[in-house]
């Protein structure tokens, strides 16, 4: 007799846990033939707010880790993902993506983790400065993470866009809540499982499934969110996000026509978009002609 | 055993009854202020379409100094058209080296006319001549000089990127550092190849109009810099003009949010430098006399009209009483009065409106239960003046602790542990600046890393330099002005 397969329940990833949505709502994901593949959580405002609490709680710890440590953790995600490659390919196939594309997406995704892992302890050097001020002070500027970031993944790049968005944020020490593609949500949740077993502390990465049009207003108006990354959102929704986002002067980033699989995001600039420049001054005792001035 | 008591500064310092400073006013004989100033559009001084003018008041004498053109959307439209034409036909085509030479000329001419600029700045805005002469105007020239040199080196600033100017920039600046803010906005914008429509603050437009003379005399091509004076109507017209590619604003957080909303549905780029409520932290091992100088400079510099003012003082409990005693002594020596007098430490409050706002907070602080203490100095009967003020025993929930007062008013709290003070310091929607005084290097770096603010002064305060990026975290805005980082606000990648 043929063995009965154990089907997977796809849940949210919040604060290192995999809860179902508190709302009990779901939407049915179907294949081309119309058969149900999975019942996907329709995350609510409350789920999102819980995720922000988790992300804010994780921020101090994650942002104070050394670049080297973050680098190793991102590399660890690549290692874990490599081991679960077949599962991700299968899930993409299940959602109707072609075999060649599925394999390519997964392999590209793994390589992007390795790429961003390398930046964790390098972007600071490229974008910092020691500033030659006139007075007798030592003055330097360094990037620091913006804080809690919320991103909406590309609908048609269900894996690589999620990886790029998460990696750019966390490589730079931010914590993030990402809303998966509602068309192809499954591998984002599996990615959450990979992240959960890669020494990333709970709350650093949070993954929701649901409807962008339903959640965007909550994302934009939340007063403890520092930045929104909305790469491919429709203009009217972007406007809405910026309007609501002004309530706490959110940084809102939009990346038009990004080809994720081609590697458009493979630069330090998406990391820098989620950084603030901090400048520090300290007097220097008796150097220079201008003298030390407290 | 008898308890040992360390008495500190038992005798109160009393300077004023022994001797006083002789008046030492800066001469205004050579200053030429025209009875009326027009907009500066397309290289010419043009009348406002409304035909209306508004008076600019000297906050020391309360008398009108001159009148300025009241700008509206039609004036702004003219200015934007001129800026667009200059951008497409001249400025974006010019080599960086040539653009730089114009900026060097501006820097030099400001140096030549620096005394005139300093005196007018103090007359129109109320800041002490010592500050306008030694800080504002030298920094203005230095800013143009610094960015002039970037104009032909932009390809080296951002690795892996080719850069281009954005286009027409609308720039709206505040009244606290009138000419310096104009320089912070204009210099990087022009160096990067953009053209500009600038609106100075309503109460302090005179030095901007004098700058227009410099720009004209430097031979800058017409339309590259346009200056439209007026109130919020002109500002809104700039923000909402469809042919403006970028808005740069310095001012209050409330107006910043309005601007962010106004640009929401557009492709306009935006940088905001908004309000602050900086924590100024004094540890028990700090050099206390120097720290007191830092506190004074932090909150009474420019009458406290400074977005990065150290307006929340945190003193470690073990030295609280000692620091307060020293601070009160020092505050009693501050000379408050005529901005043009070279002895003056604290000048005039910029406008009657601002004085009203500060007085409102003084009442509010008392009502909230904080203990008010004011310097014993005399203040002139005429003009807008405010005594340097402390609020002792303030607490986190007080509005005088949470809200930006923008005046010579310092809210004092004490703390015991580092964790406590970091928590308190960061517990504000703002994040522009912070200060920390301690003798311990490792503690400085601990603090400077954990304070969520764009500028951190350690064992110093309120220092500025063209090479040093300035700007906020959180609701203090985004984008940086100054230094290499200041270029990215005016470039397309």
Offer a quick outline of the entry:
Chain A is an alpha/beta fold. Helix content of chain A is 41%, strand content 17%. In chain A, β5 (148-152), α6 (160-171) and β6 (175-179) form a beta-alpha-beta unit.
Architecture overview:
The complex is a heterodimer of chains A (294) and B (493). With 294 residues, chain A is of the alpha/beta class. Chain A has one domain: Aldehyde Dehydrogenase, Chain A, domain 1 (3-Layer(aba) Sandwich), CATH 3.40.605.10. Chain A contains 10 helices and 10 strands. Chain A has a 5-stranded parallel sheet, with helices on both faces. In chain A, strands 3-4-10 form a 3-stranded antiparallel sheet. The longest helix of chain A is centred in the middle third of the chain and has 21 residues, at 99-119. By secondary structure, chain B is of the alpha/beta class. Chain B folds into 2 domains: 36-274 and 473-492, Aldehyde Dehydrogenase, Chain A, domain 1 (3-Layer(aba) Sandwich), CATH 3.40.605.10; 279-458, Aldehyde Dehydrogenase, Chain A, domain 2 (3-Layer(aba) Sandwich). Helices cover 37% and strands 16% of the residues of chain B. In chain B, the strands form 5 sheets. A 7-stranded mixed sheet of chain B has the order 14-15-16-13-12-17-18, sandwiched between helices. In chain B, strands 9-8-7-10-11-19 form a 6-stranded mixed sheet, with helices on both faces. In chain B, a hairpin with a 2-residue loop joins strand 2 and strand 3 (44-46). In chain B, helix 2 packs antiparallel against helix 4 and helix 3 (114-125) packs across helix 4 (129-150). Classes of the chains: A alpha/beta (294), B alpha/beta (493). Strand 10 of chain A pairs parallel with strand 18 (455-458) of chain B, so a sheet runs across the interface.
